[in-house]
Amino acid sequence: MSVRCYFIPKHIEDRICEHNKDVASNPVGISLAPKTSNISNELRSLRQDVKPEVQDQKISSRLGKNYVYTAKNRQRQPGGLIADSMNEATASKDPNAICAWVLSDYFLRFCRDILGRSSFDGRNADIKSTVHYYVCYNNAFFDGTQMVYGDGDGKIFEDFAQDPSVVFHELWHGVTDRTCGLLYHDQAGALNESLSDVFASIIMQWMNGETVDEASWLIGERCFIDSHNVTSNPNGISQAYALRSLIDPGTAFVNHPYIGTDDQPQDMDHFDSSNEDNGGVHKNSGITNHAFYLFAKSVGGFSWDIPCKIWYKTITTPGLISPNCTFVEFAQATLTSATDLYSSTQPIIIDKLRRAWSLVKIL
Q: Quick one: which of 106, 131, 211, 249 has the most CB atoms within 10 Å?
């Protein structure tokens, strides 16, 4: 079963609604913050069947088709077709449509060229994207079959379709659904979210040709409006707002006037054991996100090389992890994958990986 996975977590939507009901207003002054949250809450309860992945399939050399639709600021999917080609997307002169098409195309190419995978489902599925969903909608989501992007309220968030981390994060939920099928609650749900952050970071770095040292490792930096950012992070470094940081979880946004301070933990000593957000799926993902960053940093070079191969092998090897996988089980599974891949050629990789899991206090 597939859950609708949202880029902006419910607890942040709730903060906006509870403390700033007038901040997300449309051009005629109607408060839309509660409506955004209500729409997301209604959709979160829905599930969709997904087809299991076919193993050992022949990878197609062609890319899946790429379609972009517009909801015309209504609550509908998929809406009216804007483009099924780059030329049509460009001709539309709609920046959100152009970005949705281009970034989806990058995702398809990464799957094919780096992973040897045919689209998110492993079966060369087309990608369908709906832009301009509802009015001032402060979120984006993957519903199991297609992408949906809001335009943001123009005060806290804007143009989710133009943020590469949003597009890649949400599309990767489709990969997770059809490979290891991680459930969306507790530690398994946090791993589900973490995989999307990790692979969004990898794909962005591949797209930009960045090494692990050159990358920002930030998620949601483009869609997060930073006009209110007048303070530095706890390390005294001035930075633009983002939604999550893999380098330093808990510092992506600090003292934000509407949503406060990032509360992602970096290690198991600060694990969030509350029942909020399906057992802390967005918060606790910071722990395994940080483990990946620490490992990639210790290896150096490009994240889409050794680190990517280990994580991808872990989620695509049948039976290696269960849908209800815990952090410890996942960490042990990555060590199994690393041993299979590198024990005879680069055994130091295994030591570096074990140390990364140790630093976040999972192993």
A: 131
